[in-house]
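Customer escalation, tier 2.

The customer says the design service returned an amino acid string that "doesn't look like it belongs to this structure." They asked us to rerun it and document both sides in this ticket. The original structure tokens are below, unchanged.
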């Protein structure tokens, strides 16, 4: 099926903005990414709607300026190591409220676009929830582990001394169990306040 004239015109009009925002994203992440648009998916969807990389740029800027920016950037670059971003339309009918879904698989980032409004913003991207973390952990847990590493090291050294066994955060079962204990403790502490 040929790409409709209206949709081609829409993309042609948006091309300068796409180039501008892709350059700004490249400056943010430190490398150029290749953007592939699923034109067949967009052909029935773009009319009357706007897709812009501006929201992605804003979301990445917000994400990369959070706690431990070096760790965040490394996790993002590892997740998109092929430097490829696929932009396609979300066809999941059950999803009525997520305007952008990010999926990281096979070192490619896929943006599933489903925006019923003409002004998407960076809050629609949920990078923290979808980005894989180091060592197979979810990103939020991996980030929390880097923050808590000094405490855990002290705790594990004392535990190793007391039990005369070696304990390490590199063992996923130990790390997840410690993190869960810490999270439960934090939750109960917050409830007491």
């Amino acid at each position: 099926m040929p790409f409709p004239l209206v949709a081609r015109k829409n993309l042609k009009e948006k091309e300068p903005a796409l180039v501008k925002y892709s350059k700004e994203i490249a400056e943010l992440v430190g490398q150029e990414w290749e953007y592939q648009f699923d034109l067949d998916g967009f052909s029935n969807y773009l009319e009357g709607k706007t897709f812009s990389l501006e929201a992605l740029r804003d979301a990445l800027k917000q994400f990369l300026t959070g706690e431990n920016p070096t760790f965040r950037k490394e996790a993002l670059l590892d997740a998109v190591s092929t430097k490829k971003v696929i932009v396609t339309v979300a066809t999941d009918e059950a999803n009525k409220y997520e305007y952008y879904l990010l999926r990281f698989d096979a070192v490619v980032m896929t943006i599933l676009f489903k925006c019923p409004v003409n002004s998407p913003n960076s809050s629609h991207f949920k990078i923290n929830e979808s980005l894989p973390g180091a060592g197979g952990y979810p990103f939020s847990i991996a980030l929390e582990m880097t923050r808590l590493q000094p405490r855990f090291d002290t705790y594990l050294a004392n535990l190793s001394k007391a039990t005369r066994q070696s304990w390490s955060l590199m063992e996923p079962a130990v790390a997840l169990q410690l993190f869960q204990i810490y999270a439960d403790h934090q939750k109960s502490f917050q409830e007491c306040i």
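Tier 2 assessment: The sequence is consistent with the input. The two ends are 61 Å apart (CA to CA). The chain has a mean pLDDT of 76. Sent an explanation to the customer and offered a walkthrough call.
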